[in-house]
Amino acid sequence: MKRRWLCMMLALLLLLSLVACGAASGSTGSTGDAEVPQRENGAAMDAASSESTADFSAVRENAKLILSADFTLETQEYDATCAALEQMTAEAGGYIQSSGNAGEKGSRTANYTLRVPQERFETFFAQLGETCHVVSANRWSEDVTEKYTDIETRLATLQTKHERLLALLDQAAKMEDIISLENALAECEYEIDSLTGEKRHYDDLVGFSTFTVSLREVQTLTAVPAGTGFGAQVAQAAQHGLGGLTATVRGLILMVVMLWPVLMLLGIAGGVYWRVRIYRKKKAQQSAQSKKE
Question: What is the pLDDT of residue 226?
């Protein structure tokens, strides 16, 4: 009887194992089939993203956009980096609008305002990011198409008015009319000159993008997070801790070097105090021993 029950239990276990294996193989097969459309969808998404990459060159040709960017950079090779920035600007067909240097060697800073042709904006932006360590980088644009169009319209109107006033001045016979027309011409020419200068200013801003660069010479580069996850935060904290330890040790060494006369006097005073204390202790022991005798 026991053998029969044992055989039945073994047969049941064997049947259950066969059913489980079949279900597992079926689920594995379905998973494998599902991977194909997922990969195809991924490829389709990559293709869509590549196709959706915007090209703003046509927009910039039709619109009046002022492109600007600012960078905060760090370097451990200050002179070489400054030379590289100036060379890059010249090679891009731009110029240095302003520049300034401050600080002592080891902690120098430089500030640049660079003007680069608008068509080289993207290339120059990428080159600056590769030149040295980037702490921060920002970019923005200002659409002045409406203002620019308004200036052009007003200039055209004033030009027409100027031509009519000249024609009337040629036909004027009375002195009062001549004086009045000349005053009107002077006001019209003043407005034309003002709007022409404003238009030239916008042409310069649109034609040449502006890069504001702040460069710092450092001994240790500032840690920039490579992501927002916990691992990136831990790595950033570790780099900050190492930088803080290095700065603390450096500060202690500098403090010791600066205060060496005081430390030397304190050492001498401590040595004298210790010798006097030992001498007094010996004297007290000798007097106590003499009393016992």
Answer: 56
More confident: 166 or 249: 166
Q: Which two tokens stand for residue 280?
A: 């007094």
Count other C-beta atoms under 10 Å from residue 291's C-beta: 7
List beta partners, residue 192.
none
Residue 65, judged by CB atoms within 10 A of its CB (0-12, 13-18, 19+), counts as buried
Alpha-carbon gap, residue 50 to 44, rounded angstroms: 10
pLDDT above 70 as % of the chain: 68
Question: For the whole model, what pTM was predicted?
Answer: 0.58
At residue 287, the pLDDT reads 73
Residue 150: partners with Cβ closer than 8 Å, 6 or more residues away: none
What lies within 8 Å, CB to CB, of 209 at 6+ separation is 66, 67, 68, 69, 115, 116, 117, 118, 120, 121, 124
